[in-house]
Amino acid sequence: MKKNEKLTIEQQQLVIENQHLVDIVIRRYVIINKENPGYSHDDLFQVGCLGLCIAAQKYDPARGDFGSFAMYLIWQQILVYLQSINRHQAVRPIEDDEDNGGPDRFVDTRAEFDPQQTTENQEFVTLLKDLEKNYTGVTLKGIQALELMLVGYKGTDIADLYKVQPNHVSAWIARARKKLRQDERLLQYLK
After folding, report:
1. 188 and 120 within one domain
2. Last residue of a domain, one of 72, 90, 113
3. Do 1 and 76 lie in a common domain?
4. Which of 52, 82, 113 is the last residue of a domain?
5. Coil, helix or strand for 107?
6. d(CA 174, CA 177)
7. What is the distance between the alpha carbons of residues 166 and 184, in angstroms, rounded to a whole number?
8. Could you count the other beta carbons within 10 Å of the beta carbon of residue 106?
9. What is the spatial distance between Cα 161 and Cα 151, in angstroms, rounded to a whole number?
10. Do the Cβ atoms of 77 and 25 come closer than 8 Å?
11. Which of 8, 25, 175, 179 is most open to solvent, judged by the fewest CB atoms within 10 Å of its CB?
């Protein structure tokens, strides 16, 4: 969803009729840890509803069933949210347990979650996934690295995944950016 873009009446009705899909995705794919902030059912439901709104907005009846399409986007939105929590979560001890000399409580100091930024990143990741089909080799690796960066990975993390030096990842991304600057679909998206 783009900023300030509202759902039509039909899209709103589609969201209302299919809110149960968010619960299905949460029950099927997420193990809720009640002790960890951000992992409550209510938090995940809100994020999933954002994915449902995106699905309603992008849905084309000619391309198939809304349920499958929506569940995929709901799961992607929840996954990005959980990755964001895990990437930005910093835990520090706040009390010492005198019995064993270690901490017995931790405080969560993670950064605030910005759903608008996550939505924009997820839309861009979806576009990059579509563009992947048109590229091979170093450019393809660069596009995949860009996708990973958009969901929170750092260049060194990506280098570890591919078992290469970080400067290789930088080179892949530079090649991908050069090619993508000429891609009409990307230029249309950025307008």
Report:
1. yes
2. 113
3. yes
4. 113
5. strand
6. 5
7. 29
8. 13
9. 15
10. no
11. 8
3 with 90, same domain: the answer is yes
The set of residues, in sequence order, having a beta carbon less than 8 Å from that of 127 and lying 6+ positions away, is: 185, 186, 189
Helix (H) or strand (E) holding 117: helix 115-132
pLDDT in tens, the chain (191 residues): 554 578 899 999 999 999 999 999 988 888 776 666 667 788 889 999 999 999 999 888 888 889 888 998 998 888 888 877 766 544 444 444 444 444 343 343 334 444 444 556 667 777 787 788 888 888 888 888 888 887 777 888 788 777 888 888 888 888 888 888 888 777 776 66
Cα–Cα distance, 53 to 1 (Å, whole number): 8
Token pair listed for 8: 């039509």
Alpha carbon distances (Å) from 41 to 24, 28, 34, 108, 181: 12, 13, 9, 18, 40
Query: Which two structure tokens, joined as six digits, stand for 5?
Result: 């873009």
Same domain? For 87 and 6 the reply is yes
Residues 33 and 96 in one domain: yes
Residue showing tokens 């290469």 = 164
Q: What global pTM score does this model have? A: 0.48
Name, in order, each residue with C-beta under 8 angstroms of 9's C-beta and a sequence gap of 6 or more. Answer: none
In this structure, the answer to whether residues 40 and 119 fall within a common structural domain is no
